[in-house]
């Protein structure tokens, strides 16, 4: 799936089958922060921590976001939320493509 495909899926009322962290971003884009947060907090990986950090940043809880950026091993994002969402989606999609290629 490409980033454009993923963006097009946002027009759907329900998320198509996808890995959990992409689903969290999909839910976030639909304004379902609580559901996105529940999905992200159940993924105990650096990428899960990055999505978790992004969600707390979106929420406006910078202190909590900083904690999750540290857990993710990533610098704190300071650019537009939409730019970080795009980076996250592209990163997660590239991992998903690698998994399907193996």
Task: Describe the overall structure.
By secondary structure, the chain is mainly α. The chain has one domain. 71% of the residues lie in helices and 0% in strands. It has six helices and no strands. Helix 2 (20-29) packs antiparallel against helix 3 (33-41), helix 2 (20-29) runs parallel beside helix 4 and helix 4 packs antiparallel against helix 5 (62-72). The longest helix has 21 residues, at 81-101.
Blueprint (SSEs and pairs):
Blueprint (H helix, E strand, L loop, with lengths): L2 H7 L10 H10 L3 H9 L4 H14 L2 H11 L8 H21 L1
Helix pairs in contact: 2-3, 2-4, 3-4, 4-5, 4-6
The residue fraction in helices comes out at over 70%
SSE sequence, one letter per element: HHHHHH
Give me the count of strands: 0
Assembly level: single chain
Q: What percent of residues are in strands?
A: under 5%
Question: Could you list the spans in which at least 5 consecutive residues all have pLDDT below 50?
Answer: none
Radius of gyration: 13 Å
Described by strand count, sense and barrel closure, the largest sheet is:
none
Spatial separation of the terminal alpha carbons:
15 Å
Counted up, domains total 1
DSSP helical segment count: 6
Given helix and strand content, the structural type is mainly alpha
């Amino acid at each position: 799936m490409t980033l454009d495909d993923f963006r097009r899926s946002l027009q759907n009322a329900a998320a198509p089958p996808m890995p959990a962290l992409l689903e969290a971003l999909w839910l976030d884009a639909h304004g379902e922060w609580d559901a996105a947060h529940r999905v992200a907090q159940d993924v105990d990986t650096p990428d899960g921590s990055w999505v978790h950090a992004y969600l707390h940043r979106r929420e406006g809880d910078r202190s909590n976001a900083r904690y999750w950026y540290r857990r993710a091993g990533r610098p704190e994002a300071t650019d537009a939320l939409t730019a970080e969402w795009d980076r996250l989606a592209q990163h997660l999609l590239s991992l998903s493509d690698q998994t399907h290629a193996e």
